[in-house]
Amino acid sequence: MRTHPLWNPFETPSEEDINAARVQLGVWVPAPVEVVAADPAWPQWYAAARDRVFAALGERVLAIEHVGSTSVPGLWAKPMIDVDLTVADSADEDAWLPDLGAAGFVLRVREPDWEEHRCLRGLEPTTNLHVFSPGAREPQRHRMFRDWLRTHPEDRDRYAEVKREVAARGFTDAMRYNNEKAWFVYDLYEQVFAGDPEHEHDPHPRPLA
């Protein structure tokens, strides 16, 4: 099991830890972390982002999913769509990154030692596009977490309370905001994994919005 320093609930990440994950420090600027009530337009936001990815990559899209808090009806969230994209080899950036770049997506995060994860930022709608290869475990966990919250409203509402309380502390870095609510995410993942004994257990998946 690998525990990423940004998502360990028992460690506070340093500036070096956070900056090491960012591809272009000059692109990121501090901005208040905002958590808002669920917007019924979020599925349409996802559809717009999905269509843009398909237009750019065509058959190179092996799988694409709406994940994160905006994929759960009724859940408060940052007004930003999280999308998991599977391509043949996320490490082979030449095969997919130029076309996504031409479509307006900008590479923000490159993590070769964490399932070769890449994260791109898109606008209109604001999107975090997470790129993985086939067989990556994290997209599976994202789907499990999403589906649990969709079918367990009491946990959805508790998560919303935590998100609102953490956001009220005035964070200007979404990575630090995510780290502060990670304890709840990990506790909830324990329930999700317990509900699916065949899934390989890992108490430290990556929190999304």
In short:
This protein is an alpha+beta fold and 209 residues long. The protein is built from seven helices and five strands, in the order ααββαβββαααα. Helix 4 crosses helix 5 (153-167).
How would you explain this protein's 3D organization?
With 209 residues, the protein is α+β, with helices and mostly antiparallel strands. It has one domain (11-194): 2-Layer Sandwich (Beta Polymerase, domain 2), CATH 3.30.460.10. 37% of the residues lie in helices and 14% in strands. It is built from 7 helices and 5 strands, in the order ααββαβββαααα. The chain has helices spanning 15-20, 42-57, 97-102, 137-151, 153-167, 174-180, 182-194, and strands at 63-67, 81-86, 106-111, 117-122, 127-132. The protein has a 5-stranded mixed sheet with strand order 1-2-5-4-3. A hairpin with a 5-residue loop joins β3 (106-111) and β4 (117-122). α4 crosses α5 (153-167). The radius of gyration is 16 Å and the shape is globular. It starts with 14 loop residues before the first helix and ends in a 15-residue tail after the last helix.
